[in-house]
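PT: before anyone asks, these are the final sequences, not the draft ones from last week. 443 residues across everything. Please model them as a single complex and drop the result in this thread when it's through.
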Amino acid sequence: MSDKVPVRVTINGQERAAEVDPRRLLVEAIREDFGLPGTHIGCLTGDCGACTCEVDGQITKTCMVLAVQADGSDITTIEGLANGEELHPIQQAFWDEYGFQCGYCLPGMLFSAKDLLEQNPSPSEDEIRYAINGTLCRCTGYDNIVKSIATAAKRMASA
Amino acid sequence: MISKRFEYHTPHSVEQAVGLLAEKNGEAVVLGGGTWVVPDMTHGTITPGHVVDLRRAGLDGIEAEAGGLRIGATATYTQILESELVRERAPALHALAVGITGGAQLRNQATMGGGVCYALPSADPHGALVALGARYRLASKGGVREVDAESFYTGVQQSVLQPGELLTDIIVPEQPAGSRQGYYKFKLCESSWPIVTACAVVVVDGSGTVTSARVAVGGASETPYLVDTAGIVGATLGPEQAAVVAAAAEAACARPYGDPLASGEYRKMIAGAIAKRALLAAAG
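LR: through. Structure below.
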């Protein structure tokens, strides 16, 4: 029982397949089977948000999903945000506004920001703070993250 | 990685799911949104031999039912949040979904039905569903039964749900004509678990007199409970009447629930204030 199970996904636009143990979490499969370590493992409890990816259009904490559950899914990881060498405008804003220090929380922060700006292109500070409340940052005190998202919103609106 | 080996199943119907549960005879865990079950498996808190994933069982609908509504067991908080039907017929559940701790990710993944089954006293849905008079539809190989939310919970992570049973739907009945709903959740900080929640369904007539009031508290006691509101029916709702309900809410906290975030004593002490806030939110 419990032999490996085939899992097929589209990940950052590429079709990939792997044989995974049903005990593997999606975040582990992304990092180890698909070789994309930008998605981080933090708490494995769903609290910290460092494992956030977009799964079938919804931002998802991938430590709470079994890899086998993702069979057939379309996944975007933090590696899929940039367009080649050109950073996503949200990434660029985090860079310019010192929105990160160690960078561990970035998958959660960047995907939460992207999710917010897709639904609400000109959010208030309160709306930004609400949008990132599923991700913990232990470096910045959040202020520069909020500033980065506001900057990204302005740039994306005028682009 | 999860240590203990298990077999993963994705039933395509309720019938298949309850068949699997019966066959695995207590060895199976039901996977809804995964926000409890997967971390519990990762941490070894639970070590099931079989995982029955409901994602393809067709249980995520939110539909009108007899003046009220039916929320499928695997409907996520995002679906609840986006449902016009919920906004119209159970606005307290809309307010509840807005405030779920854990961000958009949790709202996308967590299901209200899963929260109900896990029956952790401090989780968001219990008090509100008791106030709304919700019923839980439970299916097993032997058939279907419905249990009132109020009598579903028996203790900390304990309920009347049997090993071969599956929650399929949460039924929210039609609320009294002209009623208004209020929900209040108290938490320690943005990312904290709920400490105490309360929900009120109140009817106030044209002259400002309360003609009916149903108030329930979650998180304070080991099981959610209704508060005696007889003291305010027939009166105009003011600070004195709200204080009567607050006192009743504290008095009714029979088995105070404590965890590392807040002691039972503390939760019982604030239960009245939280019930009052829900009541005033409804009346407001």
